[in-house]
Amino acid sequence: MIEEIREFNKSFVKDEKYQSYITSKYPDKKLAILTCMDTRLTELLPAALGLKNGDVKLIKNAGGVISNPFGSVVRSLLIAVYELGVETILVIGHTDCGVQHMDSRAMIESMKQRGVSQEAIDMIHYCGIDFEKWLSGFDDVNTSVQETVELLKHHPLIPEDVQIGGFVMDSTTGELLEVE
Ligand SMILES: [Zn+2]
């Protein structure tokens, strides 16, 4: 796979296919979106929202969640707001998310089957990390989006003038449903 990608990349650059993507690091729509890494959203989400290269700071992870209020997602949002001029943050969950109902115990079992030792897992617990909570999914995508929006609205480092909205996207049609 890596070789395949490298080959494609060589001709992409050689044929100057990048020309139509040239833009700056400042998002034209002063917008940041936190969403899920789901493959169905890769092209669907920007297309369904009318976004093109240069419009938005897109932050993605499994579930589009903030697992630590002072972790990498919030850090990225702070940089987006203070350094790159973002004025609006959207949190966008989606239907049929893989993180929904994810069972951390099952994943820990898979780790063991793939050669991770019980000793390593015990060590992580010993270091005070709530492994189960960190790896577990959410039950309801609406609630998850709602909680993330609340966290951002009350985050001490995010200024009051930043507009924050929460939505769930239909993973097939791209329809955006507002989360109350
Ligand atoms: Zn998802």
TrEMBL record:
Gene3D superfamilies: Carbonic anhydrase. Keywords: Metal-binding, Zinc. Its EC number is 4.2.1.1. It comes from the Bacteria. InterPro entries: Carbonic_anhydrase, Carbonic_anhydrase_sf. The keyword Zinc applies. The keyword Zinc applies. Zn(2+) binds at residues 36, 38, 94, 97. It catalyses: hydrogencarbonate + H(+) = CO2 + H2O. GO terms for molecular function: carbonate dehydratase activity; zinc ion binding. Binds 1 zinc ion per subunit. Its cofactor is Zn(2+). Belongs to the beta-class carbonic anhydrase family. This is carbonic anhydrase. It comes from Zhenpiania hominis. The lineage of its organism: Bacteria, Bacillati, Bacillota, Clostridia, Peptostreptococcales.
